[in-house]
Amino acid sequence: MRSAMAAVVFPLFLLSADAGFSQGGPPPLPASQLDEWVLAQPNWLDIFLDAPLRFAGLNTAPGWRRAGTALSLDTNCPAFLNLSMINDGEANISLTSGTFSFWFQPNYTSVPDGGDGPTNWASLFTVGQWTSNASASCWSLVIDPDGTNLIFLAQSNGASQVVLSAPIDFDAGDWHNICLTYSPTTGSCLYLEGQPIVTNTGAISYLPSDADCVAYGFSIGSEGGTNGIFQARGQFQDLQTYDGPLSADEIAQDY
Fold it and tell me: CA-to-CA distance for 85 and 92, rounded, in angstroms?
């Protein structure tokens, strides 16, 4: 049975990302885990045995944590894994305040290290659906085609925002722990290998819409929906979501 706190998170998900709380109020409660996907099984269930919305074109590859295989998205054909925002009335993601944490292994080397990078925009995860003109709405964490920047963007109603951008330098075959936190009070923070690389950005200006979240959920390793484009060209394991930002100490300890 999931935490009772998780049941109240999803109805709050349309609240503005910059709806702040009183500075004089009580301290925030510790973040609670909402869901987890080991991403090591061909049916891609979460730890509560809930099925994804849909998937196609997925492969497995050798993993290193908890199980012998990992989710792989690196094909010339459409491939996607759409996970649900809510199961059995309980939230898998909060869009007001939360954390995404996962492990990623690229199949490419970044340009500064003599590689070619992913050569396409490589989507690590997308909530909602990305479109080139922001006609739909999303949050998306992507790597640029040279493999030199990790970018978190938000879009809705024809407008887009780069919430944060951080330099990276990946080598093929190395596993990386990536953790993104966000809240109205601290903004967004990005951690790599348990260490902060971007902290305390401004507020997230755009949220994925209710309709796009219901229709597309959130996607791992390619852009939202069923197009299966902008594949990450790598492997994923152990995706975890929380209803608040983990602290720097918690992230470092978990790493």
Answer: 5
Going 209 to 214 to 216 to 219, the CA torsion angle's sign is positive
Residues 6+ apart with CB under 8 A from 172: 106, 107, 108, 109, 115
Q: Is the pTM of this model over 0.85?
A: yes
Classified as helix, coil or strand, 123 is: strand
Q: In 3D, which of 182, 177, 173, 181 has the Cα closest to residue 192?
A: 177
Residue ranges of E strands in the chain: 33-37, 54-56, 59-62, 69-73, 80-83, 86-87, 90-91, 98-106, 122-128, 138-143, 149-156, 159-167, 176-183, 187-192, 195-198, 218-220, 234-242
Interatomic CA distance for residues 102 and 66, integer angstroms:
13
What percent of the chain is predicted at pLDDT more than 90?
74
Residue pLDDT, tens place only, 5-53: 333 333 334 333 333 333 444 455 678 999 999 998 778 999 999 999 9
Is the CB of residue 181 less than 8 Å from the CB of residue 188?
yes
